[in-house]
Protein: Ferredoxin
Organism: Roseospira goensis
Amino acid sequence: ALKITDVCINCDACPAECPNEAISAGDIIYEIDPARCTECVGHYDEPQCVAVCPVECIVKDPAHDESQAELQAKYERLQAA
Ligand code: SF4
Ligand code: SF4
């Protein structure tokens, strides 16, 4: 999964781009639900939130380091839900 760092300026550009509805406004900055973020695997070739973020504050989450196969499996679980 990816994560949003505290550089986020709360511009609200990213939630609508996420195919997994993984992004929401948190108490201070926007947040990514790691259970729903597939790094866009299954939907797009590149993370859509990263593509629209004006301040480049979305990075790999070291606490949720996943392989392509794991991300694909998460995508399939979300599709089946
Ligand atoms: Fe959503 Fe894709 Fe960003 Fe993950 S990488 S939060 S799935 S837009
Ligand atoms: Fe924050 Fe970037 Fe999302 Fe804007 S696009 S809300 S700056 S993470």
Remarks:
- The first helix runs from residue 48 to 52.
- The mean pLDDT is 98.
- The chain has one domain: 2-80.
- The beta strands are 2-4, 23-25, 30-32, 58-60.
